[in-house]
Amino acid sequence: MVNLLNVGKLPPALEARLAGAFHLTTLPQQQDTNQFLQEHAAEFNAVVTSAAVGVSAELIDRLPNLKVISNFGVGLDKIDLAKAHSRGIPVGYTPDVLNDCVADIAFGLMLDVARGISSADRFVRAGKWPKGALPLARKVSGANLGIVGMGRIGRTIAKRALGFDMSIRYHARRPVSNVEWHYEPNLLELAHWADFLVVITAGGAGTRHLINADVFSALGPKGFLINVARGSVVDETELIKALQAKRIAGAALDVFENEPQVPTALFEMENVVLLPHIASATVETRQAMADRVYDNLESYFKDGTLLSAADAP
Ligand code: 8YV
Question: Which residues contact 210 (CB under 8 A, 6 or more apart)?
Fold first, then answer.
Protein backbone atom coordinates (compact mmCIF):
# COMPACT_ATOMS: atom_id res chain seq x y z
CA MET A 1 0.00 0.00 0.00
CA VAL A 2 1.23 3.47 -0.92
CA ASN A 3 1.14 5.93 1.96
CA LEU A 4 0.36 9.31 0.44
CA LEU A 5 0.71 12.54 2.40
CA ASN A 6 -1.49 15.42 1.26
CA VAL A 7 -0.04 18.79 2.22
CA GLY A 8 -1.91 21.00 -0.26
CA LYS A 9 -5.40 22.31 -0.90
CA LEU A 10 -6.97 19.85 -3.32
CA PRO A 11 -10.44 19.67 -4.88
CA PRO A 12 -12.59 17.35 -2.69
CA ALA A 13 -13.31 14.98 -5.62
CA LEU A 14 -9.57 14.51 -6.17
CA GLU A 15 -9.02 13.84 -2.47
CA ALA A 16 -11.80 11.22 -2.57
CA ARG A 17 -10.29 9.58 -5.65
CA LEU A 18 -6.82 9.52 -4.11
CA ALA A 19 -8.23 8.09 -0.87
CA GLY A 20 -9.78 5.25 -2.89
CA ALA A 21 -6.45 4.21 -4.40
CA PHE A 22 -3.86 5.15 -1.77
CA HIS A 23 -3.64 5.33 1.99
CA LEU A 24 -4.19 9.09 2.15
CA THR A 25 -3.37 11.31 5.13
CA THR A 26 -4.02 15.04 5.05
CA LEU A 27 -1.31 16.80 7.04
CA PRO A 28 -3.18 20.06 7.85
CA GLN A 29 -5.96 17.96 9.42
CA GLN A 30 -3.61 16.60 12.10
CA GLN A 31 -3.89 18.30 15.49
CA ASP A 32 -0.16 18.85 15.84
CA THR A 33 1.52 18.51 12.46
CA ASN A 34 5.01 18.66 13.93
CA GLN A 35 4.37 15.83 16.36
CA PHE A 36 2.55 13.84 13.68
CA LEU A 37 5.60 14.05 11.44
CA GLN A 38 7.91 13.11 14.31
CA GLU A 39 5.93 9.90 14.76
CA HIS A 40 4.91 9.03 11.19
CA ALA A 41 7.23 10.78 8.69
CA ALA A 42 9.02 7.55 7.75
CA GLU A 43 5.76 5.90 6.67
CA PHE A 44 5.17 8.14 3.66
CA ASN A 45 6.47 7.36 0.19
CA ALA A 46 4.53 9.98 -1.76
CA VAL A 47 3.39 13.59 -1.32
CA VAL A 48 0.55 15.36 -3.09
CA THR A 49 0.36 19.16 -2.97
CA SER A 50 -1.00 22.19 -4.78
CA ALA A 51 0.89 25.03 -6.47
CA ALA A 52 -0.19 27.52 -3.80
CA VAL A 53 1.24 25.40 -0.97
CA GLY A 54 4.17 23.51 -2.55
CA VAL A 55 6.67 21.38 -0.64
CA SER A 56 9.52 22.94 1.34
CA ALA A 57 13.07 21.61 1.57
CA GLU A 58 12.43 21.11 5.29
CA LEU A 59 9.47 18.82 4.65
CA ILE A 60 11.39 16.83 2.04
CA ASP A 61 14.20 16.41 4.58
CA ARG A 62 11.75 15.12 7.16
CA LEU A 63 10.40 12.36 4.88
CA PRO A 64 13.22 9.78 4.60
CA ASN A 65 11.26 7.37 2.37
CA LEU A 66 9.73 9.92 0.01
CA LYS A 67 9.83 8.66 -3.60
CA VAL A 68 7.60 11.01 -5.61
CA ILE A 69 5.77 14.36 -5.43
CA SER A 70 2.61 15.14 -7.43
CA ASN A 71 1.62 18.80 -7.74
CA PHE A 72 -1.85 20.16 -8.55
CA GLY A 73 -0.87 23.05 -10.80
CA VAL A 74 1.77 24.15 -13.25
CA GLY A 75 3.59 26.55 -10.92
CA LEU A 76 6.56 24.97 -9.18
CA ASP A 77 7.88 28.03 -7.35
CA LYS A 78 6.79 26.75 -3.93
CA ILE A 79 8.37 23.32 -4.40
CA ASP A 80 12.05 23.00 -3.58
CA LEU A 81 12.95 21.32 -6.87
CA ALA A 82 16.68 21.39 -6.16
CA LYS A 83 16.17 19.49 -2.91
CA ALA A 84 13.80 16.99 -4.55
CA HIS A 85 16.21 16.35 -7.42
CA SER A 86 19.18 16.03 -5.07
CA ARG A 87 17.30 13.13 -3.46
CA GLY A 88 16.27 11.71 -6.87
CA ILE A 89 12.61 12.44 -6.17
CA PRO A 90 10.66 13.16 -9.39
CA VAL A 91 8.05 15.93 -9.29
CA GLY A 92 4.87 15.55 -11.30
CA TYR A 93 2.80 18.59 -12.29
CA THR A 94 -0.03 19.57 -14.63
CA PRO A 95 1.25 21.41 -17.73
CA ASP A 96 -0.70 21.90 -20.98
CA VAL A 97 -4.16 21.12 -19.62
CA LEU A 98 -4.55 24.68 -18.31
CA ASN A 99 -3.07 26.59 -21.27
CA ASP A 100 -6.45 27.44 -22.79
CA CYS A 101 -8.08 28.70 -19.62
CA VAL A 102 -5.13 30.82 -18.52
CA ALA A 103 -4.85 32.33 -22.02
CA ASP A 104 -8.61 32.97 -22.01
CA ILE A 105 -8.36 34.85 -18.70
CA ALA A 106 -5.37 36.85 -20.00
CA PHE A 107 -7.59 38.05 -22.83
CA GLY A 108 -10.56 38.55 -20.51
CA LEU A 109 -8.39 40.77 -18.32
CA MET A 110 -6.96 42.63 -21.30
CA LEU A 111 -10.40 43.37 -22.73
CA ASP A 112 -11.77 44.28 -19.32
CA VAL A 113 -9.02 46.72 -18.34
CA ALA A 114 -8.86 48.35 -21.79
CA ARG A 115 -12.59 48.62 -22.40
CA GLY A 116 -13.56 49.11 -18.77
CA ILE A 117 -16.02 46.20 -18.68
CA SER A 118 -16.07 45.65 -14.90
CA SER A 119 -16.03 49.38 -14.32
CA ALA A 120 -18.92 49.91 -16.79
CA ASP A 121 -20.86 47.14 -15.06
CA ARG A 122 -20.43 48.96 -11.74
CA PHE A 123 -21.55 52.18 -13.47
CA VAL A 124 -24.81 50.60 -14.67
CA ARG A 125 -25.56 48.88 -11.35
CA ALA A 126 -25.00 52.15 -9.49
CA GLY A 127 -27.77 53.73 -11.63
CA LYS A 128 -25.33 56.22 -13.19
CA TRP A 129 -26.19 55.57 -16.88
CA PRO A 130 -29.21 57.93 -17.10
CA LYS A 131 -27.06 60.71 -15.65
CA GLY A 132 -24.21 60.60 -18.15
CA ALA A 133 -21.80 58.62 -20.31
CA LEU A 134 -18.51 56.91 -19.56
CA PRO A 135 -15.27 58.23 -21.05
CA LEU A 136 -14.11 56.49 -24.22
CA ALA A 137 -11.95 53.40 -23.74
CA ARG A 138 -8.86 51.89 -25.42
CA LYS A 139 -9.16 49.63 -28.50
CA VAL A 140 -7.63 46.16 -28.10
CA SER A 141 -7.77 44.75 -31.66
CA GLY A 142 -4.69 45.67 -33.66
CA ALA A 143 -2.70 46.87 -30.61
CA ASN A 144 0.88 45.91 -29.70
CA LEU A 145 1.04 42.90 -27.38
CA GLY A 146 4.23 42.28 -25.40
CA ILE A 147 4.40 38.87 -23.75
CA VAL A 148 6.85 38.29 -20.90
CA GLY A 149 7.55 34.55 -20.88
CA MET A 150 7.05 32.33 -23.94
CA GLY A 151 6.30 28.90 -22.49
CA ARG A 152 3.25 26.83 -23.27
CA ILE A 153 0.77 29.42 -21.97
CA GLY A 154 2.64 32.35 -23.57
CA ARG A 155 2.36 30.60 -26.93
CA THR A 156 -1.38 30.03 -26.39
CA ILE A 157 -1.85 33.72 -25.58
CA ALA A 158 0.00 34.63 -28.80
CA LYS A 159 -2.32 32.31 -30.74
CA ARG A 160 -5.36 34.09 -29.29
CA ALA A 161 -3.79 37.46 -30.17
CA LEU A 162 -3.71 36.54 -33.88
CA GLY A 163 -7.51 36.58 -33.84
CA PHE A 164 -7.33 40.14 -32.52
CA ASP A 165 -4.94 41.21 -35.32
CA MET A 166 -2.37 42.22 -32.71
CA SER A 167 1.36 42.71 -33.32
CA ILE A 168 3.21 40.28 -31.06
CA ARG A 169 6.65 40.46 -29.50
CA TYR A 170 8.04 38.61 -26.50
CA HIS A 171 10.76 38.71 -23.90
CA ALA A 172 12.29 35.65 -22.25
CA ARG A 173 15.74 34.82 -20.94
CA ARG A 174 16.60 33.53 -24.41
CA PRO A 175 14.82 33.15 -27.76
CA VAL A 176 12.43 30.20 -27.82
CA SER A 177 12.90 27.78 -30.72
CA ASN A 178 9.99 27.19 -33.08
CA VAL A 179 8.39 30.49 -32.07
CA GLU A 180 7.80 32.87 -34.96
CA TRP A 181 7.23 36.03 -32.90
CA HIS A 182 9.83 38.76 -32.67
CA TYR A 183 12.17 38.15 -29.70
CA GLU A 184 13.02 41.23 -27.65
CA PRO A 185 16.08 40.64 -25.44
CA ASN A 186 15.53 43.91 -23.56
CA LEU A 187 12.45 43.91 -21.31
CA LEU A 188 12.39 47.72 -21.15
CA GLU A 189 12.32 47.92 -24.96
CA LEU A 190 9.42 45.47 -25.02
CA ALA A 191 7.52 47.46 -22.38
CA HIS A 192 8.16 50.69 -24.32
CA TRP A 193 6.81 49.14 -27.54
CA ALA A 194 3.82 47.37 -25.96
CA ASP A 195 0.31 48.73 -25.48
CA PHE A 196 -0.44 45.63 -23.38
CA LEU A 197 2.29 43.85 -21.41
CA VAL A 198 1.14 40.37 -20.41
CA VAL A 199 3.23 38.60 -17.78
CA ILE A 200 3.22 34.80 -18.01
CA THR A 201 6.65 33.75 -16.82
CA ALA A 202 7.48 31.30 -14.01
CA GLY A 203 7.60 32.62 -10.45
CA GLY A 204 10.46 32.10 -8.00
CA ALA A 205 13.71 33.84 -7.09
CA GLY A 206 14.86 34.24 -10.71
CA THR A 207 11.92 36.44 -11.71
CA ARG A 208 11.15 38.21 -8.41
CA HIS A 209 10.19 41.85 -9.12
CA LEU A 210 11.19 41.49 -12.77
CA ILE A 211 8.36 43.95 -13.46
CA ASN A 212 9.67 46.97 -11.55
CA ALA A 213 9.52 50.77 -11.56
CA ASP A 214 11.70 50.99 -14.70
CA VAL A 215 9.35 48.66 -16.57
CA PHE A 216 6.36 50.81 -15.57
CA SER A 217 8.13 53.95 -16.79
CA ALA A 218 8.91 52.21 -20.09
CA LEU A 219 5.32 50.96 -20.45
CA GLY A 220 4.17 54.54 -20.08
CA PRO A 221 0.87 56.36 -19.47
CA LYS A 222 -0.87 54.56 -22.35
CA GLY A 223 0.34 51.06 -21.45
CA PHE A 224 -1.54 48.37 -19.53
CA LEU A 225 -0.07 45.59 -17.38
CA ILE A 226 -1.75 42.17 -17.22
CA ASN A 227 -0.39 39.59 -14.76
CA VAL A 228 -1.46 35.94 -15.00
CA ALA A 229 1.86 34.53 -13.77
CA ARG A 230 2.78 34.93 -10.10
CA GLY A 231 2.37 37.93 -7.83
CA SER A 232 6.08 37.78 -6.99
CA VAL A 233 7.04 38.71 -10.57
CA VAL A 234 5.57 42.22 -10.15
CA ASP A 235 6.81 44.71 -7.56
CA GLU A 236 3.36 45.48 -6.13
CA THR A 237 4.48 48.57 -4.17
CA GLU A 238 5.97 50.10 -7.32
CA LEU A 239 2.87 49.10 -9.31
CA ILE A 240 0.64 51.01 -6.89
CA LYS A 241 2.93 54.04 -7.10
CA ALA A 242 2.91 53.90 -10.92
CA LEU A 243 -0.89 53.67 -10.97
CA GLN A 244 -1.31 56.49 -8.45
CA ALA A 245 1.03 58.75 -10.45
CA LYS A 246 -0.72 57.69 -13.72
CA ARG A 247 2.65 56.52 -15.07
CA ILE A 248 0.77 53.55 -16.60
CA ALA A 249 -2.79 53.40 -17.97
CA GLY A 250 -4.05 50.49 -15.88
CA ALA A 251 -3.48 46.99 -14.57
CA ALA A 252 -5.39 43.72 -14.61
CA LEU A 253 -4.23 41.15 -12.09
CA ASP A 254 -5.15 37.55 -11.34
CA VAL A 255 -2.23 37.06 -8.93
CA PHE A 256 -0.75 39.00 -6.01
CA GLU A 257 2.36 39.04 -3.86
CA ASN A 258 0.58 38.02 -0.66
CA GLU A 259 -2.53 36.05 -1.67
CA PRO A 260 -5.30 36.16 -0.64
CA GLN A 261 -4.42 39.68 0.57
CA VAL A 262 -4.83 42.38 -2.08
CA PRO A 263 -3.53 45.89 -1.33
CA THR A 264 -6.58 48.02 -0.53
CA ALA A 265 -5.03 50.96 -2.42
CA LEU A 266 -6.02 49.07 -5.59
CA PHE A 267 -9.69 48.81 -4.57
CA GLU A 268 -10.56 52.41 -5.41
CA MET A 269 -8.95 52.45 -8.85
CA GLU A 270 -11.40 52.13 -11.75
CA ASN A 271 -8.55 51.37 -14.19
CA VAL A 272 -7.60 48.23 -12.27
CA VAL A 273 -9.19 44.78 -12.57
CA LEU A 274 -8.71 42.37 -9.67
CA LEU A 275 -9.33 38.62 -9.80
CA PRO A 276 -8.83 36.06 -6.99
CA HIS A 277 -6.33 33.79 -8.84
CA ILE A 278 -8.94 32.08 -11.03
CA ALA A 279 -7.13 31.66 -14.36
CA SER A 280 -7.34 27.85 -14.30
CA ALA A 281 -10.59 27.73 -12.34
CA THR A 282 -13.07 26.12 -14.73
CA VAL A 283 -14.82 22.79 -14.19
CA GLU A 284 -13.15 21.34 -17.28
CA THR A 285 -9.60 22.48 -16.56
CA ARG A 286 -9.61 21.73 -12.84
CA GLN A 287 -10.91 18.22 -13.69
CA ALA A 288 -8.08 17.74 -16.19
CA MET A 289 -5.56 18.99 -13.61
CA ALA A 290 -6.98 16.63 -10.97
CA ASP A 291 -6.80 13.71 -13.42
CA ARG A 292 -3.16 14.50 -14.15
CA VAL A 293 -2.28 14.61 -10.44
CA TYR A 294 -3.86 11.18 -10.02
CA ASP A 295 -2.42 9.73 -13.26
CA ASN A 296 1.09 10.90 -12.38
CA LEU A 297 0.93 9.01 -9.08
CA GLU A 298 -0.69 5.93 -10.58
CA SER A 299 1.88 5.79 -13.35
CA TYR A 300 4.79 6.25 -10.94
CA PHE A 301 3.71 3.39 -8.72
CA LYS A 302 3.01 1.18 -11.75
CA ASP A 303 6.27 1.56 -13.66
CA GLY A 304 8.31 4.39 -12.11
CA THR A 305 7.44 6.99 -14.77
CA LEU A 306 5.42 10.23 -14.65
CA LEU A 307 3.14 11.53 -17.40
CA SER A 308 4.48 15.03 -16.85
CA ALA A 309 7.61 15.55 -14.76
CA ALA A 310 9.24 18.88 -13.86
CA ASP A 311 12.70 19.40 -15.32
CA ALA A 312 15.67 19.52 -12.98
CA PRO A 313 16.27 23.15 -11.89
C1 8YV B 1 -4.09 27.05 -9.51
C2 8YV B 1 -1.88 27.83 -10.54
O3 8YV B 1 -4.71 28.17 -8.97
O4 8YV B 1 -1.26 26.01 -11.87
C5 8YV B 1 -0.90 26.90 -11.14
O6 8YV B 1 0.30 27.09 -10.88
O7 8YV B 1 -1.52 28.82 -9.98
C8 8YV B 1 -3.32 27.56 -10.69
O9 8YV B 1 -3.59 26.72 -11.75
C10 8YV B 1 -3.39 26.32 -8.45
O11 8YV B 1 -2.76 25.19 -8.90
C12 8YV B 1 -4.35 25.91 -7.35
O13 8YV B 1 -3.61 25.70 -6.21
Answer: 148, 187, 199, 201, 233, 234
